[in-house]
Amino acid sequence: MIKLIQVFGLASALALAGQAVAQTEADNRFERFAPSTTDYGRSHVDYSTWTMMLSEIVLNVGYSDRRSPRRDVGATGTRVFTGNTSRFRFEANRVIYHLVEDFHLDAITQYRQELEQVPEQLNFARLSPDEQLAYWLNLYTVATIEQVGLVYPQNDMERTRAANSELHYLDAPVVTVMGQPLSLNDIQYNIVYRFWDDPRVIYGFFNGTIGAPRVMREAYDASRVWSQLESNGREFVNSLRGVDNSPRSLIISRHYERARDTFFPNWPEDVRDHLSAFAGEDVMELIDSDIPVRPTSDEWGIADMTNGSNRCGGSISQTVSTGRGGTGSGRDAMFCGGLPDNARILLDFVVERRIRQFRDGSLGNVYVRDLPDQNIVIDMSEDDDENTEEETDGEISN
Fold first, then answer.
1. Residue-wise pLDDT tens digits, 9-46
2. What whole-number distance in Å separates Cα of residue 25 and Cα of residue 181?
3. What's the pLDDT tens digit per position in 330-383?
4. Where does the UniProt annotation place the signal sequence (predicted)?
């Protein structure tokens, strides 16, 4: 400390000391969430309600075929195209926000509140590490979909603030667990990344953007949480947004760079080894090539079907208002007689790719849930008996 005072001055030394104290306090704040590795019971948390919700609002786009998308064009009568134009616009599962109405969001908010109460209903420390991991991943996903839905149709998530907050939606304390306000970044970096020393957890954090690991159409479950993460890992690594290349670089997602200090200290060898565990043949050739790693891929466009717009295209396009003070959401999106043009482009591409892969005999893990043109209903209702939390034989239903 004497040398620090001599070099930086007393004020700088005191500032460093203050930062150390603040870091210690922060560490203590999250220490309560450290999972036990030896002394835990057999309680199980059931997330079937969340699986039901996800199955109604998530479009499964399937695996990327790593083809560059064609250039999108505006519909007849206009040159305006309001869809996503990024290289990754046909990758990653999507939340169908343009059809989500206020009562859907109310159901998601209620479920998030119920999840927050779970640690107070049982001895959270005695849940197994896999149970606790599934809990944090589900809470993160619920809170993310809720926050993005509350500010929809904002589509640039890099600049999006949390509802009723001046803070970014990833930084704002949007959940409270065991009396501790937590942000989405707290859950990811200060809890899961800190206490689960396995890079596969990277693939459990869908932050509402196309560039993130995908959102699944089912909740994470402790009995297979690692296989679920591995499935997401294979999809992400073998997509353009996960691993791409230029003539002189192996371009990878910045999600790996954000996890570098935690999981890949021997950079870039560690991250190459990690990617190799999930890579298909084409991607493996890129990883094995002698080109430098550049973690520069970062797509912050919203992972919805319409890029925050319900424009139907052409000279008869109409914009409608919704109950949340925005445009392009709710069933008013059907006013034009079908899906908005930019949603149709995505859906048509997904179907076309599925047919092509089927003909090539490489359908593999591609799953597509086609949407009808009319009378789309998102049903997240549940029986009254299932709307209450019960603890029976060590099981919590949520």
1. 433 343 444 444 444 555 688 999 999 877 777 889 99
2. 14
3. 434 434 445 666 666 666 666 666 555 556 665 444 333 444 444 434 333 344
4. 1-22
